[in-house]
Amino acid sequence: xxxxxxxxxxxxxxxxxxxxxxxxxxxxxxxxxxxxxxxxxxxxxxxxxxxxxxxxxxxxxxxxxxxxxxxxxxxxxxxxxxxxxxxxxxxxxxxxxxxxxxxxxxxxxxxxxxxxxxxxxxxxxxxxxxxxxxxxxxxxxxxxxxxxxxxxxxxxxxxxxxxxxxxxxxxxxxxxxxxxxxxxxxxxxxxxxxxxxxxxxxxxxxxxxxxxxxxxxxxxxxxxxxxxxxxxxxxxxxxxxxxxxxxxxxxxxxxxxx
Length: 258
Known about the structure:
By secondary structure, the chain is of the alpha/beta class. The protein contains eight helices and 15 strands. The chain is about 35% helix and about 25% strand. The two termini are about 20 Å apart.
């Protein structure tokens, strides 16, 4: 894609993209989506990338059809749940749990994992946080009492066993049931926004909409990939959010999500 984009939009733009990808930081997701969307649009009529406007704003996309019947300006914005996953590291927890089970000579069959949660209210909105230790302290979950729990399962695999940890903001319960197939996990949907207008998705769109409005480009279009690792923003909430955009004086904006 980068090689193709270099021919379509110039070598400097692709070198910039390559440099940003090599940095591999929190902005990498945005660059990945920008490359992919530019690649797709490059096969359609006339496309300009980082087109300067009178206000000084550089837009990701300015499109004009050959006949002039269709034209639009667009900016590309991504939203990620990486920060939420850092605060509720359930993926890391489950991965480490599986590793320790296998190391103890157990399969992952017969286990039920329940993780508690808490509701936090902050200036930028409320959110659900899972009752797990921070990533740096995850190993504290797997202490001597957890090792005893696994050893007891090995000793008496035909009996049920229970491990509970409730202290210092941690609320985890692991149940072993003989004969139960598979492993199940139960926890609150920490990645779903509690408010339509106080969440990362809305804030990102708001910033971009204002940027396009300042640019005075006529009809601004926001390409807004919603990038998460596990659960996407709830579909109904996304649709409701899109429906309220005109009421926020964002102009004639059109939002497309991927």
